[in-house]
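pls read this protein.

:::
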Amino acid sequence: MMPDDWLDPAFSGLVASGAEQWSLSTLPAIRARVHSTFKPEHHVRCEVCWIPGADAEHLRLCLYRPKGLAPDAKLPAILSIHGGGFVLGKPEMADDLLADLADELGALIVAVDYRLAPEHPFPAPLDDCYSALAWLFENSQDLGLDSWRVAIMGHSAGGALAAALAIMVRDKGRFSLAGQALMYPMLDHRTGSAQSPYPSRKTATFSWLPEPNQFCWQCLRGGYALDDDRVGLFSPALQPDLCNLPPTFIAVGAQDLFLEEDVDFAMRLSRAGVALELHVYPGAPHMFDQVPGRIADQSTCDIVRALKVFLRK
């Protein structure tokens, strides 16, 4: 059977036409088109604050506070990292999701507006995520947080940054994470190239294609040479040591370009002794949770339940 035969009909609107070419010259128009679909900043449900970031940059955070809790309650927290292939996106793209999730979990959610490639290649986006997480821990008392109940969450490229952030947190040893939730994470820079270790993926008609995937990884890479011990922070699939990472939730669609890299990463986590929950949703392509319906509802239930376990709710 052809790959199209396995795609759930509910996701026909996510099938890519292949007409859009990703390049440095087309990226501004792609950004403008995608960003025009987000809520305008004056309509969002979050509180915006600015903090000192890496490289003397100021870093914008969007804070989602749960409703209806006692003023003296100690809250759990989640650092949320948006997707967009490292080259586009901002917290507003998931505004309603994050606001509703904060209420559902009774947690403070902090979404980080990290710098984008190619203007800011590796490690700038990851450094911004670490700065946001450090701010959250260092200000936990003022924010009313329980610093033992802090998790991280990311979608797609945000999942890659979350996975790399968990590795960085482990290696630096300053903080402890309660868990990480990775939604269809973008983990391996080789996927979609001739060097891909996953040659059986035949998803070239679906919502995220090999060509833009390679373009985005090249934007993130910049001048990085892939020849030092940071390679697992750039491309988490290449991290040799996955021991002592926090409990991990991974979800991916069976028709996602990232299926094999995500399942492989999950199995390596399990072999390293990391508590793992893995979901593969049948017939679902990349970004499946953006289409209302049975699979999106199920994935929402799954991730909420996993986050409640992480945060001991």
About this structure: The beta strands are 47-52, 58-64, 75-81, 108-113, 145-155, 179-183, 248-253, 276-281.
